[in-house]
């Protein structure tokens, strides 16, 4: 018996274009100004420390010294242009998007079937959780400030890559453990076949969503 519906965001609840053509460019054009504005913030320093560590493994020459903010911003642009799912990049993007959601220049875009599907799962007594590469803060913003209103009351848990990568089987086992259920009691929805494969190997029930083929979350 399914207890938990676990949802991916990009390509599942939200058009890929909203992430790649609205959210990513919004952050991309603000990496440097954001780092400059928050250069004394310990929270932002901690994120740039993690970025610097990751940069040590990259064969690039854009970021010569740790305190060079222009270099850090260039590395962030490089990572986001490749859609890398690095946790430090995702943490920083979430912080940058907050301003856009707060001044209403950003509104999280949801497919039309999202609200009916959330209502259906609630009626069936299921809990709804999110698992996205976007940070938990970014997830709460996209659902809290969406084009169809504040959807957070429907959602009981949020998971990001702090629990593990979405392609790792163990991430789905850890999510089940965290929620106090077995993987077999989780139904995971995603547009990414490799995520679907990992969740299935963990024992979850899975549905691959192919929006280009008019798939819907409703059953
Ligand atoms: C939280 S909205 C931004 C989503 C994001 O940054 C991303 O990389 C999409 O990843 P997902 O796991 O939702 O496909
Ligand atoms: Mg996706």
Automatic annotation (TrEMBL):
Any Pfam family: Hydrolase
Enzyme class of the recorded protein, top EC level:
hydrolase
Cofactor binding, note field: Binds 1 Mg(2+) ion per subunit.
Pathway(s) where this gene product acts: Amino-acid biosynthesis; L-methionine biosynthesis via salvage pathway; L-methionine from S-methyl-5-thio-alpha-D-ribose 1-phosphate: step 3/6; Amino-acid biosynthesis; L-methionine biosynthesis via salvage pathway; L-methionine from S-methyl-5-thio-alpha-D-ribose 1-phosphate: step 4/6
Reactions it catalyzes:
5-methylsulfanyl-2,3-dioxopentyl phosphate + H2O = 1,2-dihydroxy-5-(methylsulfanyl)pent-1-en-3-one + phosphate
Taxonomic placement:
Bacteria, Bacillati, Cyanobacteriota, Cyanophyceae, Leptolyngbyales
Which proteins does it associate with, and in what oligomeric form? Monomer.
One GO term in the molecular function aspect is: acireductone synthase activity
Presence of keyword Amino-acid biosynthesis: yes
The EC code for this enzyme is 3.1.3.77
Please give the family membership noted in the entry. Belongs to the HAD-like hydrolase superfamily. MasA/MtnC family.
Which source organism?
Leptolyngbya cf. ectocarpi LEGE 11479
Outline what the protein does: Bifunctional enzyme that catalyzes the enolization of 2,3-diketo-5-methylthiopentyl-1-phosphate (DK-MTP-1-P) into the intermediate 2-hydroxy-3-keto-5-methylthiopentenyl-1-phosphate (HK-MTPenyl-1-P), which is then dephosphorylated to form the acireductone 1,2-dihydroxy-3-keto-5-methylthiopentene (DHK-MTPene).
Record-given protein name? Enolase-phosphatase E1
Q: Origin, by domain of life?
A: Bacteria
Picking any one GO biological process from the record gives: L-methionine salvage from methylthioadenosine
Name the coenzymes or cofactors required: Mg(2+)
